[in-house]
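Researcher: Please translate sequence to structure tokens.
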Amino acid sequence: MSGRLEGKVAIVTGGGAGIGASIARAFAKEGAKVLITGRRREKLEEFVASAPAGAVSFHAGDVTKEEDSKAMVAAAVAFGGRLDVLVNNAGIDPPGTVTEISLEQWTRIIDTNINGTFLMCRHAIPEMIKTGGGSIINVASLAGLRCIPAMPAYTTSKAGMIGLTNAIALDYGPQGIRANAICPGATATEMLKNSMAPLAKGQGTDIDGALKLLTRFCPLPRPASPDEIAPAAVYLASDESSFMTGAQMVLDGGACAVDPCGAAIASLGTKWGGA
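Model: Translation complete:
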């Protein structure tokens, strides 16, 4: 099936790379007009140059600044004449336990992942209401449902995104706005690969080796590619998901199915209760 998003106008924050770029590419392929945003103008320009003519535009800016978020929404409406879909994908993930992370870093993560999502929704929702509704897709994380060691700010922010998603679904459903969250597990983005550098160094391996270590207990023992996450966003943006709101789509290679105690035993080459 093609043209599933024909006539729709979408914003994808953090759309110049990783999951955001894959979603923007998939949206354009399905007929949507897409505005991508981000702080790295050169990445945005590079993406637009590679896209079909007239399908994708960009607006550089920082989602943590209200004037930028407002301008992003206005740019999307100017580009496509309306706004139907908002994908909140911009995010950061610096590590550090509660006693290690600086207040500055904590605030920066919460500002980007939570406040940025809030500000984009704040300005997108009135535009969606004008045309009878729309779809908000928040790219949260498996970390919003399960904890990652030494990353309390990131896990808190992603859990908060899920809570915000549900609140928007409740408050704006009667006005035709659906809100859902996508919760990817390990996905081979630039951000994750950068995060794996210390693990790779400590284990005397490369990034691919670190990713294998990271996912070795998952039923699908590998990271996802960003292109494997994008189809979920297409579904949530399309009319095929017209009765779906306030939900979390978990794309984690089966990680949630794993009991860490059982996985630890299996790693020793034995079975639960086995000799």
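Researcher: Any highlights?
Model: The two ends are 52 Å apart (CA to CA).
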